[in-house]
Amino acid sequence: MPLENIRHIVLVLSGKGGVGKSSITTQLALALSLQGKSVGVLDVDLTGPSVPRFFGIEESRVRQAPGGWIPVEVHGKQTLSSKQTYGDTGAQGRAANGAKQESEQHAGPLSCMSLGFILSNRGDAVIWRGPKKTAMVRQFLTDVLWPELDFLLVDTPPGTSDEHISLLETLLKQTAHTTQLAGAVVVTTPQAIAISDVKKELNFCAKTGVRVLGVVENMAGFVCPNCSECCNVFSKGGGQVMAQEFGVPFLGSVPIDPAFVMLIEEGVRPRYPKGTVVEGRVLVEREEGVEDKEGLLVDKYRDCSLAPVFEGFVRKLVEEVEGR
Fold it and tell me: Helices in 17-155 by DSSP H: which ranges?
């Protein structure tokens, strides 16, 4: 069975489009990799397959093998530079006067599968009726030859339609044991209109028996590229209130960071104004006129303001899933 090599399957869901599911999926995958986990990402958003773009592997193609498809490798198992890219503002950090600390870091392998690797033209519209979408989702779940994975993250389309029903039906048939389908991370933004739509996704999880591992409130603030402030452009806190209302865990809030956008769009290593601190860590200071594009995505992501935020998220997820 193609899924037998996977320990935990986590769905990334939302009842509304444009809330940043693919961004959250990408960063969860990078954060899990940075904790040494082997990770796969399955993109079943068939009409908007953006995962290849997020990982910078748009030009890659899947390879056929006896029995199915071989997913595209983002990176193999890595030993990253021993130079840590942020300082701790706690007692140890103060003792070192914010100096960069030395510690070796191992990143687990990361691979992806998406319809974007199969389309002959990246700009082609996918104009499919429900049955064809359903068949494609089932094929992704039965024909992809994943390596040994600690986590498979499934990036889903918005809503609760054909793809979601097919996804769950096939997973329940294909998974070897009930704990293999670990649950779902539900993504929202702070606005009331988004919250009202995402509540439907939580109801979907309740009706289908999918465990909600946590709610992530995306776009909760804006990290200014010119100062160390974070402004709540779209307000903040709606996701936490929704999680409390449904009695599910709240993983945390994620601000908009232009440096992360530059990392994904242009491959530029994130840098920040002097004194920028996130999650108790001093981020690397920006040098005017210098754009560093060297290194793997997972290595450059360590310098992003969102990396320590997602480090906290995945620690909670790993404890929740592996502690069952």
Answer: 21-34, 51-54, 91-95, 130-143
